């Protein structure tokens, strides 16, 4: 019989790639993780792992077992949600991770409303891709992220959609809606590799017929706007991201994208099966409201 607790260890290894990283995510020692995996291989009766130096990959049997582990985890989440739904009260704490503008747009208003119902939010500032990792690792209950960053291990709830605007230095000659193709020869300020918004920018530029000449990077939109205001280049930024950042007397200018603008579709994501937990359901309803 396979111990379902060991399936959680296998999932962590599949997510993080090394025993050390899986141990950190599970708050265990690497030795304990290795022992759990060895025991799981014995229970399964098949080799589950291929070891190459520090990194570990899954055998076909290991990949198959991970797929089943996702199903088991979702059912356990659903069972816990059902039991919690039987409880008489809904007071408690829910951990939420969101990027800065989503905290301003939806999380802070929801926090104020939920506080009156004795539901406390613990809020963590994290970019969308980071919040998904935190959610899958069980460190938070709700992740506010971009729609395309979710997986089939999560259930998502639409919150809002916002277009990207062009951010230009104050002396830039372009006025009115901006054709992205006209910025092909500009230097660009973009988010770091791995940030989903960088994918949006690079795809939008590719559709306009060019590859952006990236000179500066930051995941902080205040920093991006400051660099643009200082004349370091141009950028694309979600409309609800911060504006009005000053560098001396200079302020970056925002312009709409002509034609079809790239969009950021923002969702609230939870681990599949947990959406019926009474506290999480209350938070999701308030976020959507």
Automatic annotation (TrEMBL):
<comment type="similarity">
    <text>Belongs to the LysR transcriptional regulatory family.</text>
</comment>
<dbReference type="Pfam" id="PF00126">
    <property type="entry name" value="HTH_1"/>
</dbReference>
<dbReference type="InterPro" id="IPR000847">
    <property type="entry name" value="LysR_HTH_N"/>
</dbReference>
<protein>
    <submittedName>
        <fullName>LysR family transcriptional regulator</fullName>
    </submittedName>
</protein>
<dbReference type="InterPro" id="IPR036390">
    <property type="entry name" value="WH_DNA-bd_sf"/>
</dbReference>
<dbReference type="Pfam" id="PF03466">
    <property type="entry name" value="LysR_substrate"/>
</dbReference>
<keyword id="KW-0805">Transcription regulation</keyword>
<dbReference type="InterPro" id="IPR036388">
    <property type="entry name" value="WH-like_DNA-bd_sf"/>
</dbReference>
<keyword id="KW-0804">Transcription</keyword>
<feature type="domain" description="HTH lysR-type">
    <location>
        <begin position="2"/>
        <end position="59"/>
    </location>
</feature>
<keyword id="KW-0238">DNA-binding</keyword>
<dbReference type="InterPro" id="IPR005119">
    <property type="entry name" value="LysR_subst-bd"/>
</dbReference>
């Amino acid at each position: 019989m396979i111990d379902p607790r060991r399936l959680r260890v296998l999932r962590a290894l599949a997510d993080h790639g090394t025993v050390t990283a899986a141990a950190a995510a599970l708050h265990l020692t690497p030795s304990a993780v290795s022992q759990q995996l060895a025991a799981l291989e014995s229970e399964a009766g098949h080799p589950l792992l291929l070891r190459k130096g520090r990194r570990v990959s899954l055998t076909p049997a290991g990949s198959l077992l991970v797929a089943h582990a996702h199903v088991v985890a979702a059912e356990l989440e659903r069972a816990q949600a059902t039991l919690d739904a039987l409880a008489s009260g809904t007071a408690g704490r829910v951990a939420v991770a969101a990027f800065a503008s989503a905290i301003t747009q939806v999380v802070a208003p929801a926090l104020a409303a939920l506080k009156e119902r004795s539901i406390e939010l613990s809020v963590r500032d994290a970019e969308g891709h980071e919040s998904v990792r935190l959610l899958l690792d069980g460190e938070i209950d709700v992740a506010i992220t971009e729609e395309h960053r979710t997986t089939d291990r999560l259930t998502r709830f639409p919150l809002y959609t916002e277009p990207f605007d062009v951010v230009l230095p104050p002396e830039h000659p372009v006025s009115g809606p901006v054709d992205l193709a006209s910025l092909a020869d500009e230097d660009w300020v973009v988010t770091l590799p791995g940030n989903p918004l960088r994918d949006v920018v690079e795809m939008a530029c590719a559709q306009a017929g060019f590859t952006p000449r990236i000179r500066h990077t930051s995941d902080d939109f205040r920093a991006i706007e400051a660099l643009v205001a200082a004349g370091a280049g141009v950028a694309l930024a979600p409309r609800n991201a911060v504006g009005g950042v000053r560098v001396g007397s200079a302020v970056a200018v925002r312009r709409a994208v002509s034609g079809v603008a790239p969009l950021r579709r923002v969702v609230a994501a939870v681990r599949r099966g947990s959406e019926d937990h009474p506290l999480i359901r209350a938070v999701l309803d308030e976020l959507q409201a």
